[in-house]
Amino acid sequence: MSPFVARPEHGVVWITGASSGLGRALALKLAGEGYKVAVTARRHEALLELQAEASALPGNIFVLDGDVTSAEDMEHTVAAIEYQHGPLALVVLNAGIYLPARGEDLNHEVFERSFAVNLHGVVNCLVPAVRHMRARGHGQIAIVSSAAGYGGLPGSAAYGATKAALINMAESLNFDLGRLGIRIQLVTPGYIETPLTAKNKFPMPGLISAEDAAAAVAVGLKSPGFEISFPKSFTYKLKLAKLLPYGLYFGLMQRVLGYRRKRRDAGRSSSPRTAE
Ligand SMILES: NC(=O)c1ccc[n+]([C@@H]2O[C@H](COP(=O)([O-])OP(=O)(O)OC[C@H]3O[C@@H](n4cnc5c(N)ncnc54)[C@H](OP(=O)(O)O)[C@@H]3O)[C@@H](O)[C@H]2O)c1
Questions:
Q1: 160-186 pLDDT per residue, tens
Q2: Looking at the annotation, which residues are catalytic?
Q3: Per-domain residue ranges for the chain?
Q4: Using CA positions, which residue lies closest to atom 32 of ligand 1?
Q5: Ligand 1 pocket check for 12: Cβ under 6 Å
Q6: How much of the chain is in helix, strand and coil states, percent to nearest 5?
Q7: What is the CA(117)–ligand 1 centre distance, in A?
Q8: Crossing angle between the packed helical segments 121-136 and 71-84, to the nearest 10 degrees
């Protein structure tokens, strides 16, 4: 049986974290292809601007508020989409944050916030979405992880851990939801030019625009593959690097990301550079 591919006639697309960056660009791309797209995030005004920008497109965008860290809110959001706008055909779990975790100022908050949004936030949306799709026997869910989840990178102890967890989660769900008719896909981008990477002060290999990233995701969502990875010239190198022995992997990553270990008066320190 060929994998389920959500078409506009199947129902609604829900994109989390659509107020900026990849989520925003993907919402416009899919609305341009005729999909009805529900967008959520915390910044309501930014979502209303997105909705207005899409007014001339063949599909349409409608706005719901949605902090993914609240399981209760996400239950209500899914119910609201289903009852007010139609069945959920495709869900893109995209909301995410990048907080550097540096050796010099390692603290609980960076880990707790990263896990609350990037990992538990995905679960909070996934659970109600699967319940509704399961009742119908079909649906498509894309989980936005990152190439930073393939292996450890400087400054990425919190972010990378959440994204590695999402890769494992999507792989496992591929077994468990596939037999219920629900298709899972994993999105693993390299560097994208968005507010999330705007704070990076170093050259980012393979950096692409949010529009090009959204175009790659839109193509991947219609393809039969499990993983939507781009740009392949960068992400496949990271994948291959992970096959190396650790000694070689650490040295290679330090060189590629321009990471330098520095000594400070009171100990060791570093200039972390990470792939988001
Ligand atoms: N940029 C990259 O290089 C890159 C690379 C690989 C993967 N990714 C992943 O791609 C996804 C999108 O990132 P981006 O680069 O487009 O960054 P972005 O422009 O900062 O977008 C992040 C989105 O997540 C939303 N968000 C953050 N916290 C939220 C919360 N608690 N509840 C609901 N929404 C929340 C933000 O909206 P509000 O602030 O309005 O809530 C925003 O719409 C993330 O999962 C990121 O990890 C990005």
A1: 999 999 999 999 999 999 999 999 999
A2: 159
A3: 8-256
A4: 67
A5: no
A6: 50, 20, 30
A7: 9
A8: 30
